Amino acid sequence: MSEKKKGPIIKGYEKLKKEVVIDKVNEIFRTQPDNYIAALEEIGFEYHEEDDYEEIEERNARPENQNQKDLVAFFKGEKKLSDRILHQYFEERDSEFPNLPLMRPFFKEANQNLKSLIMYGLDSYPERIDLLSDLAFFHEFENNIRLLITYYTRACVAQSNLETFTELAWDFYYSTNPDGYEALYALKKLFDPDTEKRKIIDFLIAETKEGKETDSTVKI
What is the arithmetic mean of pLDDT over 66-90? Predict the structure, then answer.
């Protein structure tokens, strides 16, 4: 039956059915993270092992320009940390088509030279959100919660643009919340109640509370 021929009752039923399935899947991932394959199969899904295309892409990645060659050499310990290496990293990161498959494995292996490069960059440019995001991504493969707290806090204090400050605060919250750190409440203590930054933090805290209350009312 075509979409045009389906009446509102049928469309409504199909929409409800899809929502129920999505809710069941979300519940399985939330409550059975170690047994999700079997649980999904129980409700009618079939599991198929597929090639890890990201891994294949990374395995086949090669440096495509001099910047990338120098960065790979640095990550492998063949070059020293320097301003030149840092700006080559910026150029590659900010390029229209960055060679992500070439760079990702160094994050995944928690390459210490990459870590030192990110920290070196943040010491020179503490408010760069892209470097903070890279540190947060690195944190997924090597726990660096104290570094995240230090650098995000420093950036939030130094940032004068309120729109950028809001983005930083959100990133800080989402990057550290899985580790149990209450970034917004920590920031709240740093700013006086009558400041614009404090008002923003209070607003963000209210937003997170509202989101948690909404999640708690959802029933499967």
Answer: 97
